[in-house]
Protein: Deoxyribodipyrimidine photo-lyase
Organism: Flagellimonas hadalis
Amino acid sequence: MKEKISIFWFRRDLRLEDNVGLYQALQGNFPVLPIFIFDPEILGNLPKKDPRVSFIHLQLQKLRNQLQNNHQSGIALYHGDPLSIYKKLVEAYQVQQVYTNHDYEPYALERDAKVKAYLKENGVALQTFKDQVIFERNEVVKDDGDPYVVYTPYMKRWKEAFNPSIHLVDYDTHSLMGKNLYTASSFPNLTLKEIGFETADIKVPDYKVSGDLIQHYKETRDYPAIQQGTSRLGPHLRFGTVSIRKMVQKAIAEKDRTFQNELIWREFFMQILWHFPKTVNHAFKPKYDRIEWRNNKDEFERWKTGNTGYVLVDAGMRELNATGYMHNRVRMLVASFLCKHLLIDWRWGEAYFAEKLLDYELSSNVGNWQWAAGSGVDAAPYFRIFNPMTQADKFDKQLKYIRKWVPEFQELTYPSPMVDHKMARERCLKVYKEAVG
């Protein structure tokens, strides 16, 4: 006779503690089989040594070991189309319930709808829970129900709606694991090679969110040379190796609110993507889709490799290529440079960042690229064009960051600026004005 079980489906929540969906699954009446599915639809176009895939795989092995050593349980790893995997699971077990946490991206919504429909046909409910954000979807909107498209009023309403006793509940999974996890002598496992990947050379660094960092975040976050000026939290929020509730709790414990506001920016862009999914491929402001981009492939290549002749732009791109990370202040500059100085479509830059960034998050990446291009919500006006030279002088005056990533910047071998700033600015204003008026 087939065993009666519930399933918890790990996705963007790769931790055991303070995990809403896992907590709810463990509250149920049946042993919980944790699973993870490596989805070829998501993995298909990634490089063989993608550091994010290595990170996910490593984290899953750590969780498997914890569950095995402490609870004689584990995580079953699968590779394939999620719907096909669920068909096999329903054949193998009497699946009673499937639990997971919400995923808001367009592909995820489509995937989950297919799985939910199949499970329903077989008498199985798919229950999903809010876990990766404090507020989602329509939870922070204007009085008339319309979504906010400007950050500051969204942030103020977010803070008005926030209630620690409601939104910072600790979901204590550990107290439930001993009695409710599915136990077995072994669980399906996969090596990186078996899913078509190799161990990446780039590693995801640990995050550092100390009280000192939060207290001084406002003064340090804009200067890329300050090693301890940022938290490196992005990939850990993206893959759920840390709880957003724990991070907000840390943020509000300190007097400075700048760090908390950055966490709110993340949720602002998430609700924008939820309400306006077209922004993945189209300008939020439709008239910006009329811009006549130059899209010079050779110039795009120089931008990608950090050989533009503008030292701070080049430093940022080289840091990205070498580490999978780029300081946020520098991200704004390199994005502006691509769109405004070179008149290359923001979608080209967004796709390159998607390939390289360890903390790649569709909503934030699209939102920030459209901000830089002037086409998005709450965007910088198109006539705001960063001067790469004054930005370098302002944010890396001692040249520490530039020397690290562009050591040859004073040598004859270093290229001259690929485009004159004044000419590029005037050209950009002309092209944008023709498109948007």
